[in-house]
């Protein structure tokens, strides 16, 4: 039944006698160690049993039948999405009164058909985590890759992190908390940031072959929050970080190391309001951080820009920020959960709130961005969700979940009076083209799942409905933007490109999503498990967008165990994606009625710049540019197949190898569909094409004329579902579950991802030669190694049995007992980036630009490999009913200069400009943090 939900796990096994003969009709009882969760089952004719619907936690298993001694195992740990196997051998009643087993169960999940990775509570509690965002631990799974920062930079979207599964886009993943989705549908990333203290465990599912998995083309993360228990438990903590011990940023041109002070305090507590009946758990954290940042502008460059802006244009008197400027980050996290036992059913209700405020250090910036173009962000999330779990009979379960949630976002740049100025590859200042945005995203979700066990079949069917409403004001381009090829052009007041939005930026629409599925988990013989089923999804988009109702996805997976030490698993499935609300919002906002955009180039752009004013009305004689959806818009989806083997090495060690193929189909991209075929530019035809002074990067290259297919419009940015991607990856992993005070997970992935568009708004260099766009994806990360571990010296102070074995330690043991070491090592090959001329040199009339320098193909640039080593050292000191943890941890302990972004701007000359391919954004240097945590 672990296959049957995103919230529960299961226990299965066989009951035999000492000769190996099956024992039928044996009574199997499972009871929670810390709460009153009780489940029962009866073994079948083959001795097999399955007990599902178990929340994460520790359980005792007891098996009894007439004529045999009782069997008891009090060390069964259940995790979300996993099936734990317990094979009991019963002795005759006259031989022994009871068989008691203390050893942990096998680490192999022999019925799991999907490629998954479980992050248990020990890893969540003890591993180093720089931002206290538990989703950082998803990258402990070696088959995943972090999101390429270049995607956020090129798409002008807020860079909020994320990860890639199967080479698919970071926006194509799904996050579920307690069975309901927690996705920001505008960006495709996550919403609520729960305290790690509120998380029990979670499972990373690369692609789930059970038909219940869906809602995204990529992977999913199934998170379960902590519940209270009869025993009161909690902690209180404080984290402190000071910039004096941190490394110096590599790129910032500043006279000293930046100051930084970060304080985070929090507490959590859980227990029983009514023993065995009503439980609660509350967790809260508050962070207050003050720091400094600086741009990568030397005084000579800054002075040259200031002098140029003072001579002409609408930014007279502007001053580039030199040296440090202050940054602040404040975050409040609060969650509370109630669990009520109602006999054969249970009810869970949870409230969560996140309030996040970042000033001058919020989104989409690099070290070539002036303070004026940097941003502040304000996020406010509130959600209420519930789960009613009704065990109608030992063989029939019904689960109902609901959610009501709202996200409020306000993104605001340092300058809002506009316009913005970009000196290609040199500087960005003023009001940026994107970044000022207000939106309210409201979710109402309802789902129902029915799980029926019949013999060797576990049938499941369910349906879900989701209503998402968006009210937004996206000010993209309303301040105006001028792009200059060089500082010399800025001094001369000669921009090469101008773009501005006009009209009403406010939008208000909703979409309704529905899903239904049927599946069967069948174990025809011992050692073989089959998952097969169908899933149907429908997405009702706001008019005039079309609705594609053809979204039926088959699933099949298998797990075969030739013996107890081996599992061979694999499968195939189709996974339909969702449309990003940001893409839909572009189409709704810039439809030519509510709002439009205007573009001018070369002499026309220069004339507008030299007028020295911010425009509030469209210009006469410039045709509008709009957004629209292609006719017959299709549902994006992925086709995924995998094959792997896993081997038990004993003592909770396992080793696995897996090959995975993922193909993205009908993925989103955008083209200017109003262009005539391009022509090769020569000195002779340049004047007729509106180019007065052709540059080396234009002569001999294809450029577009100013004639349009539809003369009523200039650019028609048409969103299409015609892009695709291919991923091939091989992953090898070694894993040891936490036992005897030690655990380890290490893995290596070798992969390749190709595509022809890496995000919805990516445009091709030539819409008439789309085949030339096929290249390594921005999400392509060829090699990745990650290892994480936890080593506790001496007994585990949280384990009473361990403490009893060390009741009388000697002097040396007293010194070393209580120390804990938790390292994370990640080594990643570099990410791809797309080389650009820096201007609209092919006159495609789009922004961001897509024109590449001659002899460069799409995404042919690459950042160097990154190496990151984090270490957490903890000393536990027993105090009263609990213990005090004294912690020192460092992130990027080796102070490696890891490059996030390089400068992709080649320039317009035959030789690249000085900054081409040089770093413009680095990952954080070494950071040191201390904390005290009292746990009871």
- CATH fold-level label of the largest domain: Maltoporin, Chain A
What is the overall shape?
A: globular
| Proportion of strand residues | over 45%
The CATH homologous superfamily name of the largest domain equals TonB-dependent receptor, beta-barrel domain
Radius of gyration over all CA atoms, rounded? 30 Å
The strand count comes to 51
Helical residue percent? under 10%
Mean pLDDT: 90
| Architecture per CATH nomenclature, i.e. the level-2 architecture of the largest domain | Beta Barrel
Helix segment count?
A: 8
Q: How far is it from the N-terminal to the C-terminal residue, by CA?
A: 33 Å
Q: Which segments are poorly predicted (pLDDT under 50) over 5 or more consecutive residues?
A: none
Q: What characterizes the major β-sheet?
A: 22 strands, antiparallel, barrel
Task: Quickly give the structural class.
Answer: mainly beta
Query: In total, how many domains does the architecture comprise?
Result: 2
Task: Return the CATH class of the largest domain.
Answer: Mainly Beta
Keywords: Cell outer membrane, Membrane, Transmembrane, Transmembrane beta strand, Transport
Membrane topology: Multi-pass membrane protein
Pfam families: CarboxypepD_reg (PF13620), OMP_b-brl_4 (PF25183)
GO molecular function, one term: carbohydrate binding
What's the short version?
With 936 residues, the protein is mainly beta. It is 7% helix and 48% strand.
Question: Secondary structure elements and their pairing?
Answer:
Layout: E1 9-17, E2 27-32, E3 38-42, E4 48-54, E5 57-64, E6 70-78, E7 83-85, E8 88-90, E9 98-101, E10 116-119, H1 121-126, E11 144-146, H2 149-155, E12 163-165, E13 174-177, E14 180-181, E15 199-205, E16 220-225, E17 233-242, E18 260-274, E19 278-293, H3 299-311, E20 325-342, E21 345-359, E22 375-393, E23 396-413, E24 420-423, E25 427-430, E26 437-454, E27 457-474, E28 481-484, H4 487-492, E29 497-503, E30 506-522, E31 528-540, E32 552-560, E33 566-576, H5 581-589, E34 595-601, H6 602-610, E35 626-629, E36 637-650, E37 653-672, E38 679-680, E39 702-703, E40 716-739, E41 742-755, E42 775-776, E43 783-792, H7 800-805, H8 811-816, E44 819-828, E45 832-833, E46 861-862, E47 866-879, E48 882-891, E49 899-902, E50 919-922, E51 927-935
GO molecular function: carbohydrate binding; siderophore uptake transmembrane transporter activity
Domain TonB-dependent transporter Oar-like beta-barrel: 224-286, 326-540, 548-857
InterPro entries: Beta-barrel_TonB_sf, Carb-bd-like_fold, Oar-like_b-barrel, Plug_dom_sf, TonB-dep_rcpt-like
